[in-house]
Amino acid sequence: MDSAAKQLDGFIAKFDPAMAKLIRSIRAALRKRFPTAHELVYDNYNFFVIGYSPTERPTDYIVSLAANSKGVGLSFNHGASLPDPKKILLGQGKQNRFIRLPNAAELKKPEVEALLCAAVEDAKPLPASGKGKLIVRSVSAKQRPRK
């Protein structure tokens, strides 16, 4: 296993077992949904984040999994401009919006799938083939408890 994968496993292991399992299941679903995207990993003060991006640039991410001790969310980089007829996006920022993910099955709901499709259309194109890299972008020395 390479060092980025080992680091990722260590970041997820900081969470209680149920939350770690949830993070892993959502990551697996997103990896399947975006196989050519790069996974940009951040273990920051408030959140553990994995962004899915067509490039290695953090500003190009399409969606990101964001977890803390209270739960997991799916953040849409340009969520404020996405069509959201069911009004499921949360947040008041000028650009970003998110949904809460109690389980990976939430990603299969039609209204979430529609948001994912719209986010992909709004983003830079994903590579047509290959597998994206796992890149650890930052790790904060000081963090809120993950359990």
Please give a structural write-up.
The chain is of the alpha+beta class and about 150 residues long. It has one domain (about 5-125). The protein contains three helices and six strands. A six-stranded mixed β-sheet has the order 5-4-3-2-1-6, covered by helices on one side. Strand 1 and strand 2 (about 50-55) form a beta hairpin. The chain starts with a helix and ends in an 8-residue tail after the last strand. The model has no long low-confidence stretch (mean pLDDT about 95).
Widest β-sheet, arrangement of strands = 5-4-3-2-1-6
Shape: globular
Strand content: 15-25%
| Largest sheet features | 6 strands, mixed
DSSP E strands, number? 6
Brief summary of the model shown:
The chain has 147 residues and is of the alpha+beta class.
Name its key features.
6 strands, 3 helices, 147 residues, globular, alpha+beta
Describe the SSE topology.
Blueprint: H1 3-13, H2 17-33, E1 38-43, E2 48-53, E3 63-68, E4 71-76, E5 97-100, H3 110-122, E6 134-139
Parallel strand pairs: 1-6
Antiparallel strand pairs: 1-2, 2-3, 3-4, 4-5
